[in-house]
Design brief:
Keywords: Multifunctional enzyme, Oxidoreductase. It contains 32 helices and 21 strands. The chain is α/β, with parallel strands linked by helices. The strands form four sheets. Strands 7-6-5-8-9-10 form a six-stranded mixed β-sheet, with helices on both faces.
Length: 767
């Protein structure tokens, strides 16, 4: 995209429709006159009285505890300079947008016409009753240093100038990891910092806190090297003046330097300068929009370089969004009186450590990368990684408590992490609980389609995370080639090519032949059939050589179920199999069935399906609440579907009195307890919404889960195949790596439950 088009696109983006990027929205109901009387007069007087009696109740009854002011006077906006407060407003709105989407923090942007320190401080101090925190932005140096110092000293809410500390925190984490990869110790490195503004000074102070020695740091500003002979330096910059006499130019300083940090202007570093640096150099060229040296030039000049920029189109983007939303989130959640050095250092270490952990597949997908991992091109996390809110916010909150600036203590950190994730609409607590359960007793899972990247990537994830021990079926040479190409490492994982496994083929062939010989299958056909990996994998599960089978990524549902039914068969007392989906929604988990197997179940089949699904759901949540759905509510409409559904409920109530189940009912009544209570107070579901929905036929169930998945933003885990003697689970055609991992996790828990049931005294007696 050329620059004229980019300019117009940017102007259109900000002007079309509703001008600007943010708006204020209500957080309470406003639909009725009663709502309005509570929101304003006369009801609003009650919280006013409560706060007047106890000023801390302002956090209880107002938005103060989640409200940050982003404040600027427009004196140092981006690389545009002193363009005034009005011209800074798009940037401040953008900052507010990032606060909201990354940490669910509400923001008012305030652009103030205040040039002097006294004017600025007076205005901001007067705002303390309104806000939970203050984010200073785009204020010129050296004024910004004094403004922040005074506000931190005179206010009792968190204050941070992000231009200084945000870059310092993110680049500090990057520096730690880059030096670790390059084999350098922080207290030994020679560092060059080009730039002496607010960000450069703050970054340098952070590096010293992390272990860099001041005598090993050389700083430059627009007038050259900061040395002790300069008479134009203020006290802040004089702190970084060097006594070295051999450094006059940037090129001089770069010779044998280990680290270059650029916070200055574009294209001031040459390839020759990089060539003169020490072995395994680290270069952070963070000037925006053009770095001090382009990424392409830098990596061409030095193959052993670790290169970071402020740009999103190259690896290792030093982006403040990795820090400020989560630092303020943690500070607000403990009602900190300040953001102190301990909290900033905690953020540095949390960000650095997070980069060393396995990267969620959603992050790989977001950046179109197949296997992102800690190394030269990944020294800090990506901004789209949703783990940042838990890792960084928790670290900051804990540091605030330990350093004595927190006014509110967090005692249940697991609950706090769940709260943080729910702010982003990603509260998958149930799936995390299932994952933890799987890790307690990992099982052997055979993958029937192992010669595909997605399967191999999922296999590595479940192996690395201790969820399962993978067994790979497929062309071994192809599997190894895919692993090499994508830098996957599954160690000594078992790999089987069904065409070559002669000993097991014979045994499995005999087993299939005996089961199917009176159904027209010859021994020769049985041998050909057993080479099919779905049949072979099912035999491995049947013979106890694996605990579960995963397949279906590249085959249709029927072709995957058929081998399982023929080899393994249905469980004792089960008349039919059924399919179920776990739908992870913003309102919590809901189980859907049957969505994949039974097309138009009869009354008896609906009863069997409900019993099967209710039992399966009880593995995942303490008490299933089951609703049988229809287009009718308790006989309000006639027809085949309402009548068969109502009859199925009657039988369930009679045969399974302890099951919480009701119907027939419409979906909105099943999920809305107030609506159900107001209209059908007799329902056995009254009190809480249903968490298990039984559909009257495959069409409605299948349509519902796919609509919810695409339009409703729910995550579908499944299909979970129910009713087989041993665990076989079928993937959706074309499943993502995340979906495969989820299905493997479900399969492991299923295998655990079946193993436990088989070991029970009742099961042993039956045998």
């Amino acid at each position: 995209m050329n620059k004229p088009n980019r300019k117009q696109d940017a102007l259109n983006y900000h002007s079309k429709g509703r001008p600007g990027k943010i708006q204020v929205v209500p957080t309470k109901p406003t639909n009725s006159q009663r709502d309005l009387t509570l929101a304003y007069s006369p009801g609003v007087a009650e919280p006013c009285r409560a706060i007047a009696e106890n000023v801390d109740d302002v956090y209880k009854y107002t938005a103060k505890g989640n409200l940050v002011a982003v404040i600027s006077n427009g004196t140092a906006v981006l690389g545009l300079g002193n363009i005034g407060p009005e011209a800074s407003k798009p940037v401040m709105e953008g900052k507010g947008l990032l606060f909201k989407i990354y940490a669910d923090i509400d923001v008012f942007d305030l652009e103030i016409n205040a040039k002097t320190v006294d004017e600025f401080v007076t205005i901001v101090k007067a705002l303390e009753p309104t806000f939970g925190g203050i984010n200073l932005e785009d204020i010129s140096a050296p004024t910004c240093f004094e403004i922040e110092r005074r506000l931190k000293a005179e206010m009792k809410i968190p204050v941070m100038h992000d231009d200084q500390h945000g870059t310092a925190i993110i680049s500090g984490a990057a520096l730690m990891n880059a030096c670790e990869i390059q084999g350098k110790k922080l207290d030994k490195i020679k560092m060059v910092v080009n730039g002496a503004g607010a960000a450069a000074v703050s970054c340098s102070k952070m590096y010293l806190s992390l272990g860099v020695k001041k005598e090993n740091l050389v700083m430059f500003d627009i007038n050259g090297v900061l040395d002790t002979s300069r008479t134009d330096l203020d006290d802040i910059r004089m702190e970084f003046a060097t006594e070295r006499k051999d450094v006059k130019t940037l090129a001089d300083a770069m010779k044998n330097a280990d680290v270059f940090v650029g916070l200055s202007a574009g294209n001031v570093v040459t390839p020759a300068m990089l060539v003169s640096m020490a072995k395994n150099p680290v270069v952070f060229a963070m000037a925006n929009p053009e770095p001090e040296i382009s990424y392409d030039l830098a990596v061409a000049a030095r193959k052993d370089i670790i290169m970071a920029t402020g740009r999103s189109d190259f690896p290792n983007q030093v982006n403040n969004v990795l820090g400020f939303p989560y630092i303020f989130r943690g500070a607000l959640d403990v009602r900190a009186t300040a953001i102190n050095e301990e909290m900033k250092i905690a953020a540095v270490h949390a960000i650095a450590e997070m980069a060393k952990k396995p990267v969620p597949e959603a992050v790989n997908l977001a950046y179109n990368i197949t296997n992102l991992k800690f190394g030269r091109d990944y020294i800090i996390p990506k901004p789209m990684d949703q783990r940042l809110i838990t890792e960084v916010s928790s670290a900051v909150a804990r540091a605030a408590m330990e350093s004595g600036v927190a006014r509110k203590a967090i005692t249940d950190w697991d609950a706090y992490n769940e709260e943080l994730l729910s702010r982003l609409g990603t509260n998958n607590k149930l799936m995390r609980d299932i994952t933890n359960k799987a890790k307690q007793a990992p099982k052997r899972v055979v993958f029937a389609e192992a010669d595909t990247y997605k399967i191999l990537r999922a296999a590595q994830i479940v192996k690395d995370e201790g969820i399962a021990t993978p067994i790979l079926l497929g062309n071994i040479e192809k599997i190894k080639a895919i692993m090499r190409e994508n830098e996957l490492d599954l160690g000594d994982v078992q790999m089987i090519d069904t065409r070559d496994d002669c000993a097991r083929l014979q045994e499995f062939t005999e087993f299939l032949f005996k089961k199917r010989q009176r159904r027209g299958l010859t021994k020769q056909e049985a041998r050909k059939t057993i080479i099919d990996r779905n049949y072979y994998g099912a035999c491995m599960v049947q013979f106890g050589e694996a605990d579960a089978l995963i397949s279906g990524l590249t085959k249709n549902y029927a072709d995957t179920i058929k081998p399982a039914l023929q080899i393994i068969g249905t469980d004792e007392g089960v008349n039919r199999v059924a399919g179920m989906y776990l739908m992870i929604t913003q309102k919590g988990p809901v189980f859907f069935g049957d969505t994949t197997v039974n097309i138009n179940p009869s009354v008896e089949e609906l009863v069997d399906i409900t019993v099967l699904i209710e039992k399966a759901v009880s593995y995942f949540i303490p008490k299933p609440r089951v609703a049988l759905l229809s287009y009718s509510n308790f006989g309000s409409n006639k027809g085949e579907i309402p009548e068969k559904t109502a009859e199925a409920v009657r039988i369930l109530h009679e045969k399974y009195p302890n099951m919480i189940v009701d119907g027939e009912m419409q979906a909105n009544f099943a999920l809305n307890p107030e609506l159900l209570r107001d209209n059908f107070e007799f329902s056995t579901l009254n009190g809480k919404p249903a968490n298990t929905l039984i559909f009257p036929g495959l069409a409605s169930g299948n349509i519902a889960y796919k609509l919810l998945q695409e339009i409703g933003g729910a995550e579908a885990v499944g299909p979970i195949l129910l009713g087989l003697k041993k665990p076989v689970h079928v993937l959706q055609l074309g499943s993502s790596v995340r979906e495969i991992v989820n299905m493997v996790t479900i399969a492991v828990v299923d295998a655990q439950e079946k193993s436990r049931a088989a070991a029970s005294p009742k099961a042993r007696k039956a045998k």
